[in-house]
Design brief:
Four Helix Bundle (Hemerythrin (Met), subunit A), binds fe (ii) ion
Length: about 130
Amino acid sequence: MLNQPLIWDAKFEIGVEEIDQQHRFFLSLINRLSIELERNDNQKYLLALFSELNAYARFHFISEENIMLRAAYPNLEEHRRQHLELVEQLHAKEWKLRSRSSAEEGGHIVAFLVQWFLVHTSQEDKQFADFLLS
Ligand SMILES: [Fe+2]
């Protein structure tokens, strides 16, 4: 059984509008993926959706890092390292999804994405927002 969809909540907002908008969209992609995994009837679309999520994650990270660069954020390198780590983990998961049954792998992927989203945005991204808005 997969996780329940994670509904966007004001508590996820970090206070930087551009980043919050992207986070909202990223969360909607996680939910779309979760629904598709649950359905489990179109492997080709599922993989295409996962590619979309990966591509969006990369775009979002660069966008976020550019905002940090402009603000001369002192923790940028560490933050970038964490983004890179997730990009690598997402690629590994995409390979697993391609080679194993999606039902077997899907629950892990959604749980991983939701967990990562919650922890990273509420801690690392929030830290940056506090720096930017102070
Ligand atoms: Fe981030």
